[in-house]
Design goal:
27 helices
Length: about 600
Amino acid sequence: MSAPNTLFTETLLLLGGAVVTAPIFKKLGLGTVLGYLAAGVVIGPILHSIGDSEAVLAVAELGVVFLLFIIGLELKPSRLWQMRRDIFGLGTAQVVLSGLALIVASYLGGIAGWKGSIIIGFGLALSSTAFAMQILEQQGDVNTRYGQRSFSMLLLQDLAIVPLLALITVLDGTKETASPLSSLAIAIGAVAAMVIAGRYLLTPLFQVIARTGAREAMIAAALFVVMGSATLMQLAGLSMAMGAFLSGVMLAESSYRHELEADIEPFRGVLLAIFFIAVGLSLKLDVILDNWMLIVLAVPVMMLIKAVVIYALCRVAGSPHNDAVRIAGLLPQGGEFGFVLFSAASASGGLFSANTASTLIAIVTLSMALTPLSSALAKRLVKGDTQEELDEDFEGAGSDVLMIGFSRFGQIAAQILLASGRDVTVIDFSADRIRQASSFGFRIYFGDGTRKDVLRSAGIDRAKIVVVSTHQREITNKIVELVQTDYPHARLFVRSYDRIHSIELRHKGVDYELRETLESGLLFGRRTLEALGVSEAEAYEIGEDIRKRDEQRLVLQVSQGLQAGADMLYSRPVKPEPLVKPKRAAETYSDADDLVVLPQEEPERV
């Protein structure tokens, strides 16, 4: 019983630390990341409440994996191709030049010999994807020009871990390992396998699961894809985060991207918070005390060298002063891969000692802790103009109209919107409808419109109008209430089921509602009159009179009840004389002229 109780207690401490410190540091303007780090330092090095920080860190690294998956979902392959110059040009230059400068500083500082200094320099040249991307997300700057350029550099650093790990074996020379060329071939093969699987296997997999309607199976499939791709890349010598990112990119064109993002987001948030706490847990106070002079000197020197190199390279690459300052303030810290490199180099025994590795890890950790402060300092150094936002280059996140439900009614309405050149994001919960729509060239996304996280992933924050074209009254009402509560800025245009539903929606205060049979019934009646010899103009006037009376009666019914306005109906009695006596009595036609409509479409949950 002791082990489970210990695990439960440690989990409770980690979650409690996140709950307490994150709001406090957020309120103080220091950011939640620094709060998580502080919680980790208090729980671990100070109170010694959790002993095995490495085990916590190993699990919490999944937060970084999930973060990169979600980022990949927002980048279409075409967009990634447009960023290739920043990734392979600017990113490579940053790693090489920062690494060379830090190699010289390490060697002159006497931290290690020239071989060890090479690993130290390139290890410290890598920045923290988790810290940088979390700060960008908190500030809403992921899609700014400087945010995208920062991400490009981080992506190349993730790729650089493969040759750097191979470099350790080359410099060490104490043990035989696979050649760098074979390692590179394995990595390329793994990436190719990921691309093929993403193109031909993942979307059919989600189609099959979606048809079952089992939401828990969809969540399990999302976790399986992320963790499976991350494991594949790790086995190939690449980082787990890189594998998750590639799987996200492969699914960026999929109709299931919004549902996947909504399912992964809660895991990403919690695990990423625990990751930052685990970094604080791993901080070794005794190492800091024993080497405090070296650490106090090394941390600012390293951050200053990287900031200067990054600023200069960004300016050469065409970034304005303000963007270059922001990037330099965002990426001067050491990264998670530094932990991997330094641990591997010390384990070999030929490059530097375990004590040196602990000191370097402390330097990286402290530089991470200072990242929110360096980012805040960079904001003070900008010249006051606001950064320019990137044009959204991916579908489904920021359209003017978010349409929920793509049955017959929604398809007709979407035609008008698309014909006008408007961008429309459409989500639907029917896998079969999505498959059928894609065969006609429509791009709609799989998603449950009654879930707030799905709506957020689909871009409701930036939508001007939310069109609810579902045909189940209960589902429609649930979506309307959700949108009105959490997204009051969005205007609601709603398809109503019948007259009673229209009255109900008007009581809710929607911006516009329309009964699904009203317009078709009016047009049908007009065409029938014309077939009986009535002129088109007269038939139109009669139809408009009926429309006007119907609206006036509906307004009265909203305020006075369903029986109001009955005198406004044309209800001249008709007494037909049938040729054959009916077998049963005729049903009485009530005032509720459009109340009973038999649903002929499959039930939907959007």
